[in-house]
Amino acid sequence: MKAIAAKEAKNNFGELMDNAQREPITIERRGRAVAVIMSAKEYEKIKLERLRAKLAIGEAQADRGEFSNKSVKEIISEAKAERATK
């Protein structure tokens, strides 16, 4: 993965976006990675992989008979609360 300084990213943002279509790029500040820019296509691919992993966990739990007695509303509320703390 290519890494560039934050100032270079700022000064060459258009080029940065073009390069991110080919591979993710780490943006560094004072030599430390602070962000990664990647194509929207790659980001969606990662999100889909995470969703599939979560579904596989749920499927395995269901196969073992581990069901929740929570309502859909409770589950959504908990998920929103968890997301808000991140």
Q: Quick gist of this model?
A:
The chain is of the alpha+beta class and 86 residues long. Helix content is 59%, strand content 17%. The mean pLDDT is 91.
Descriptive account of the structure:
With 86 residues, the chain is an alpha+beta fold. It folds into two domains: 2-38, YefM-like fold; 41-84, no CATH class. It has helices at residues 6-11, 13-20, 40-63, 72-84, and strands at residues 2-5, 25-29, 32-37. The protein has a three-stranded mixed sheet with strand order 1-2-3. A hairpin with a 2-residue loop joins strand 2 and strand 3 (32-37). The longest helix is centred in the middle third of the chain and has 24 residues, at 40-63. It is elongated. The two termini are 26 Å apart.
Largest sheet: 3 strands, mixed
Quickly count the domains.
Answer: 2
Give the CA-CA distance, first to last residue. 26 Å
Q: Over the alpha carbons, how many angstroms does the gyration radius reach?
A: 19 Å
Amount of beta strand: 15-25%
- SS summary, helix count: 4
Topology overview:
Elements: E1 2-5, H1 6-11, H2 13-20, E2 25-29, E3 32-37, H3 40-63, H4 72-84
Parallel strand pairs: 1-2
Antiparallel strand pairs: 2-3
Quickly list its features:
single chain, 86 residues, alpha+beta, YefM-like fold, 3-stranded mixed beta sheet, elongated
